[in-house]
Design brief:
The structure is a single chain. This protein is of the alpha+beta class. Helix content is 48%, strand content 16%. It has one domain. It contains two helices and two strands, in the order ααββ. It has a two-stranded antiparallel sheet. The chain is flat and about 40 Å long.
């Protein structure tokens, strides 16, 4: 049963990476919320670097 939990957790992590890749995609509410949370956890602040604010690849995590 424990192995099943590990496999399930690994699958969810991989699915999250595939769906929320920081390289590109639409900066919808969910994507921005996840990116902000990830950045905050690293001690940074999510900022728009350049370009179109509707594209998630144009945001970066900057250290405070």
């Amino acid at each position: 049963m424990k192995a099943l939990g590990v496999i399930l957790a690994g699958s969810l992590l991989l699915a999250g990476c595939a769906m929320g890749g920081g390289e590109g995609g639409v900066a919808d509410y969910g994507a921005l919320q996840r990116a902000q949370a990830d950045c905050k956890a690293k001690g940074g602040k999510l900022v728009l670097k350049s370009g179109d604010p509707t594209w998630i690849g144009n945001y970066a995590c900057e250290r405070k």
